[in-house]
Amino acid sequence: MEIFSFVKRVPSTTANVEIKDQQLDTSGCEFEINPYDRFAVEEGLRQKEAAGGGNVTAISFGDDAAQKELRTTLAMGADAALLLKNDAADSADAATTAKVIAAAIGERSFDLLLFGKQAVGHDQHGVGAGVATRLGIPCITEVISLSISDGQVTAQRGVEGALETIAASLPCAITCQKGLNEPRLASLKGIMAAKKKPLESVEVEIPALALIVESTQPPASRPAGRIVNNAAELVDALRNEAKVL
Amino acid sequence: MSSILVILETRQGELRPSCLEAVGAARVIADANGCAVVALATESANLDAAVIGAAGADQLMIAAAESHSADAAAATAARVAKEISANTVLLAATVRGRDITPRIAALLDTGFAPDCTAVDANTMVFTRPICGGKAFSNVKVNGDVVVASLRPNFFDAAGREHTAEVSEITSEVAKAQVIEVAAQSGERPDVAEASIVISGGRGMESPDNWHLLEKVADAIPGSGLGASRAIVDSGWRPHSEQVGQTGKTVSPELYIAVGISGAIQHLAGMSSSKVIVAINKDADAPIFKHATYGIVGNALEILPELAAELEK
Ligand SMILES: Cc1cc2nc3c(=O)[nH]c(=O)nc-3n(C[C@H](O)[C@H](O)[C@H](O)COP(=O)(O)OP(=O)(O)OC[C@H]3O[C@@H](n4cnc5c(N)ncnc54)[C@H](O)[C@@H]3O)c2cc1C
Q1: CB of B303 closer than 8 Å to CB of B212
Q2: What is the ipTM of this complex?
Q3: Does residue B194 have a pLDDT over 80?
Q4: Å between A83 CA and nearest CA of chain B
Q5: Which of A14, A120, A166 lies closest to B178 in CB terms?
Q6: Mutate which of A96, A141, A211 to disrupt the B interface (most B C-beta within 10 Å)?
Q7: What is the mean pLDDT of residues A186-215?
Q8: Can you tell me the mean pLDDT for B28-38?
Q9: Pocket around ligand 1: residues whose beta carbon is below 6 Å from it?
Q10: Residues of chain B positioned with their CB less than 8 A from the CB of A217
Q11: Domain with A31 in it: what CATH number?
């Protein structure tokens, strides 16, 4: 089975967010693989094994620094990596990113595309379904369990208050939610092996952005809170002051 | 006259409540720009045209599909958007809404503003949280049609007297299809939809103490139960109840955090709640910095008192 797992280099979820000139400034942040993309890499490795063979290719749309995250996926066990390189990749919104990725992989042959359900940071939830739509293949989002046999895909996902089971056939795109698997850590052997695995880099163009960020600001500050002495005072405040009960 | 299209989410023929908020937001934009509001249920459903009209829609279209398919829903929506020359397409940012939004944008070859918490009806600048709510961006879609999803609990249905004019339409063919929907057990609303959420963290000390939280939830009709990741990872509660970066994002009127320290990844899921209450024995717990009201003390003692006060 030919599997593409998509990974993005994102600011760490614990990073402090700086805003400079009304724009997000991530220059001081630590970066890491988007946590949801780890599920996508892990699932690729598992599905390849279940299929009894094939390749897992990790693909990132990013700048040269994303080679580090791609090496991590190779150390986890991916067979090859592909960097869709553009220094302005992080300025691209999800719709534009989907367009770039769909154009870049459209000619390649694959059975399964695996994405994180969202990239933390931009939090747009849109690349996987956008790529699939542009390629005309089915996509199942926020998947927590996945089985594939004879080209038939069955997946589950949580929606508000219910669990959905969704069926599709290959080729198919999946976006991965926590619960799908437990991503492995790279072993020392894996890290050594990763150095010899192929990491291809191709320049890609970014079309006009589909979402323009005009400005960015910190969250509106919350009014200072108040410590109350007991449950009775709390209920009184909620009923008569905040009026939420 | 150009129109604003709003996608209605139904499950087993029942309308999901947050869609009515999107209809209300569409009404505000429509009134500022002289447009009509068309609500579209992408699957067959038994909808009350008076409810949809009251929320702000002029027309209600109901597609014929028997079950949900995100790709078919998006294709039907994109077709209708073209037929009615929609300048804007709005959805609720639910799991299904988040799924369909990028597809509609791709089919219309435009951009989308996801998970928005506000919109300026004159400039069509949307405000949306980024980095798990650590910052907010003001964004504008660059394309012929503006597609946006709206975070539940931030917009209001119009609340007017009007009955939408109903028509039935065909659906597009599905690629991926929902074949089963299993409702979660229990009477409580999902944590992402509840207007009041009571969440427990490691300070609850044991899964055997969860009945204390449930008692409080029972005393507040319509409330939902949540949990921190520490609790879900320990297997005390299902992941469907997890609030935070790797769980659900909630914006209820009232969020009560019990024995939760307020880690940045937990805050990512609940910091946009209107009123936040923290109950924690550590007066220095970070959660208090975000709380509207706090009680410093042992949750296991405070919860029964709280339940008793609420029942008064
Ligand atoms: C990539 C990533 C993603 C994450 N995603 C999430 C997420 O989605 N959601 C999430 O919640 N976390 C998430 N986390 C974990 C997060 O960092 C914290 O570890 C977690 O939120 C802690 O849960 P807690 O507050 O229940 O426990 P703790 O941090 O252990 O806090 C327990 C609190 O209870 C108080 N306490 C103890 N006993 C009592 C008592 N008897 N009465 C009153 N108070 C008491 C303590 O003072 C303390 O403040 C994530 C972490 C990472 C790295």
Answers
A1: yes
A2: 0.97
A3: yes
A4: 23
A5: A166
A6: A211
A7: 97
A8: 97
A9: A 13, 35; B 201-203, 205, 228-231, 242-247, 259-261, 263, 265-266, 269, 280-282, 285, 298-300
A10: 135-136, 138
A11: 3.40.50.620
Say whether domain B3-169 belongs to CATH 3.40.50.620.
yes
Which residue in chain B has the smallest CA separation from A166?
A: B178
Question: Which tokens belong to B83?
Answer: 């037929």
Domain that holds residue A221: 2-241
Global pTM reads 0.95
Nearest-atom index, ligand 1, CA of B247: 8
> Is the CB of residue B58 less than 8 Å from the CB of residue B122?
no
Class level of CATH domain B196-311? alpha beta
On chain A, the residues whose CB falls within 8 A of the CB of B68 are: 164
Domains B3-169 and B196-311 share a fold: yes
3-class SS string, chain A: CEEEEECCEEECCCCCCEEECCEEECCCCCEEECHHHHHHHHHHHHHHHHHCCCEEEEEEEECHHHHHHHHHHHHHCCCEEEEEECCCHHHCCHHHHHHHHHHHHCCCCCCEEEEECCCCCCCCCCHHHHHHHHHCCCEEEEEEEEEEECCEEEEEEEECCEEEEEEEECCEEEEECCCCCCCCCCCHHHHHHHCCCCEEEEECCCCCCCEEEEEEECCCCCCCCEECCCHHHHHHHHHHHCCCC
Predicted confidence (pLDDT) per residue in A61-86, tens digit: 999 999 999 999 999 999 999 999 99
Question: Where is average pLDDT lowest: A27-31, A173-177, B161-165?
Answer: A27-31
Summarize the confidence of residues A163-170 as an average pLDDT: 98
* Predicted local distance difference test score (pLDDT) of residue B87: 98
